[in-house]
């Protein structure tokens, strides 16, 4: 079976979309697919319905509120124009029948894509595992990513 | 006539492939699925990528930009 591992480092909407088009496309093609969310990318799997825990430190709370809270809150890497560009892009996607990032995440999970979150990024940003969407399988270190990638046919850093 | 049909007309990459696979996953082995779409590249890619997984591609037809791919679930 072919295998793909994707590192999603970016928390930009356009880049996350590219990652999920490839992830769900590969999974639909019968590939074993893992997405490793690290650094800004961990914001993509935050759940905006789950409230930040009270026991957080001040800096952690600050980080949490400054970063996008989940897939619906991401911005374009280019032409964001204070949010106008992003909302125009989302409208265009709807008109053109492109699924939203949130829907693509659901599809990926339905096709058994593995969601791994980088433990170190989570620590730095002060996020807790309870704040992520249910699609997240595991909180891991770089070793797991490497182990998964060892026999992968395709590995991408986005 | 296929056992199941999905209409992915109007949907674009990667939805035709993803919807086909999602549907196949829920079906029993031996059943047939007809996928109807109009996204150009998917006419080639759906049978290619699904066929590669060991399923049987029974037919691929196209008329006025609308294609029909019929698949038999083999495993």
- Domain count of chain B: 1
CATH superfamily of chain A: DsrEFH-like
The geometry of chain B reads as: globular
Number of spatially distinct domains of chain A: 1
Largest sheet strand order of chain B: 1-2-4-3
Approximately how much helix is present in the residues of chain A? Answer: 25-40%
Q: What structural class do the secondary elements of chain A suggest?
A: alpha/beta
Tally of DSSP β-strands of chain A: 5
Radius of gyration of chain B: 11 Å
Give the strand order, joined by hyphens, for the main sheet of chain A.
4-3-2-1-5
N- and C-termini, Cα separation of chain A? 23 Å
Give the averaged pLDDT of chain A, no decimals.
94
- What top-tier CATH class of chain A fits best? Alpha Beta
CATH superfamily label of chain B: TusA-like domain
Q: How would you describe the shape of chain A?
A: globular
Helix content of chain B: 25-40%
pLDDT averaged over residues of chain B: 96
Structural class given helices, strands, pairing of chain B? alpha+beta
Description:
The complex is a heterodimer of chains A (158) and B (75). With 158 residues, chain A is α/β, with parallel strands linked by helices. Chain A has a single domain, classed as 3-Layer(aba) Sandwich (Hypothetical Protein Ychn, Chain: A). Helices cover 40% and strands 15% of the residues of chain A. Chain A has a five-stranded parallel beta sheet with strand order 4-3-2-1-5, sandwiched between helices. In chain A, strand 1, helix 1 and strand 2 form a beta-alpha-beta unit. In chain A, helix 1 runs parallel beside helix 4. Chain A is globular and about 45 Å long. Chain B has 75 residues and is an alpha+beta fold. Chain B has one domain: TusA-like domain (Translation Initiation Factor IF3, 2-Layer Sandwich), CATH 3.30.110.40. Chain B is 32% helix and 33% strand. Chain B is built from two helices and four strands. A four-stranded mixed beta sheet of chain B has the order 1-2-4-3, with helices on one face. In chain B, a hairpin with a 2-residue loop joins strand 3 and strand 4. In chain B, helix 1 runs parallel beside helix 2. The longest helix of chain B has 12 residues. The model of chain B has no long low-confidence stretch (mean pLDDT 96). The chains are: A alpha/beta (158), B alpha+beta (75). At the A-B interface, helix 1 of A face helix 1 of B.
